[in-house]
What does this fold into?
Amino acid sequence: MLALLDSSHLQSVAFSHLPNIRYFSGFTGSNGVLLLTPTRAILFTDPRYELQAGQETDVTVKIIRGSLWPEVAKTVQRFRLKTLALEDELLSYAEYRRVSSLVGKQVRLHDASGLAEALRAVKDEGEIAAIRASMKLCGDAYLKTLKKIHTGMSETDVAAELEYRMRRMGADGPSFETIVAAGERSALPHARPTGAKIRTDQLLLIDMGASLGGYASDMTRVVHIGKASPKAKSLYNSVLEAQLAALDAVRPGAKCAEIDAAARKSLRRHGFDKFFQHSTGHGLGLEIHEGPRVGRKVADEIVENMVITIEPGAYLPGFGGVRIEDTVLVTAGGAEILTRVPKELMVLEA
Ligand code: ZN
Ligand code: ZN
It folds into this structure.
């Protein structure tokens, strides 16, 4: 962990973003600052977490009553550090000003934004195993719930059932608010489930994920309730084709923009590209959305052991939308799909 300071040419860093603190120290509490100095890593937290911090982390733990930053600042001064890097992009303006005045003029502030995130984008073996397990749980909960879906159930009924299943299977909880969108509402890429009832002759979009051992999973599937119309089938198959094209473009060295372009180019052949307004994918891990962003104009390169989603979609106002999302591991040979649920259009008997 301290090697990070050498490689980043920083003298000290105070991490305050909780997923970053968890990544480096193992601590999962809701309040903390992790200070890295040339010789020590110190976790500052409050008395609620005294026992937990002792169990979860190997770094030195300092239990502080009240605000943590004055103690962090005192430590910086006691160690006679000349510079301190903060996560500027994740601190509030008020916090930043506070830290700045606490450390005083002798300590220059630097920006450590993105430092932890760049490391987190590439997963180690343990993290890959954790995401695999999370994806398995997510897929199992989906397939179990699918058997129970029937017309007359509401979108929220289905979302509740999915989340209940994930919890029963050992998930910490959903990794984000489960999306269940029936019929026309499936054309809203981020639809919140409502009391709307599932009817026959509709698309039903489910975007879900679990958090298991802190690691997220993410998957979208669309089923059809009752026999699918030619329009629904052609929409579905076009998105599937685009998804396969994007998956095919995943390999170490590929630019994020190239993978995104593969999906858009494929959709353009069917005239659906203008109905695809979001990015093709994103990294995931301790957070549901992490780097890299697989989107237009993103020059970042994909490297081995990144875990990213591939999720193109097409959303037709007044009709419905289709998005197909797999989570994949980037291997030397390309994308290894971690989502364990079939992708052909499934028809549920009404
Ligand atoms: Zn998703
Ligand atoms: Zn996603």
